[in-house]
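Section 5: illustrative case.
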């Protein structure tokens, strides 16, 4: 038994050396990752709407029935273009816009999708994704 222990120690040491060499030569770093946000609301999920005007003045594009959170904590009243620029200024490479399903109609969803497509076409350094946060009143699915 005493003779196998040195062999095990030598094998473990060799594995550590080989692993270290692989990690050094492969150049694994956080610089290779793309930073972004999977869950970004825009004005359609706030009281201020896509145009940044509060309900009452032009409430056609706002969400008057908020089911969660404080709407002004979110960067509210912003559109895809504004938040794309803000994300780029913060060093992000992508955003996924996911407004509440109960706040969007088909036309508003298409505005977000088309604005994302415009940002994607205009920039090679940024990716814009459009989606929906499925929100259900009165419980969970």
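Designed sequence:
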């Amino acid at each position: 038994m005493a003779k196998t222990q040195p062999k095990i120690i030598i094998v473990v040491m060799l594995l550590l050396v080989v692993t270290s060499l692989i990690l050094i030569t492969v150049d694994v770093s956080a610089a290779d990752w793309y930073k972004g946000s999977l869950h970004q609301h825009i004005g359609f999920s706030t009281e201020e709407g896509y145009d940044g005007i509060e309900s009452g003045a032009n409430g056609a594009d706002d969400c008057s029935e908020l089911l969660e959170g404080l709407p002004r904590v979110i960067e509210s009243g912003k559109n895809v273009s504004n938040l794309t620029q803000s994300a780029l200024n913060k060093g992000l490479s992508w955003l996924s816009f996911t407004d509440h399903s109960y706040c969007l109609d088909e036309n508003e969803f298409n505005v977000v999708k088309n604005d994302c497509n415009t940002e994607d076409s205009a920039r090679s350094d940024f990716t814009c994704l459009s989606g929906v946060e499925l929100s259900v009143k009165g419980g969970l699915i």
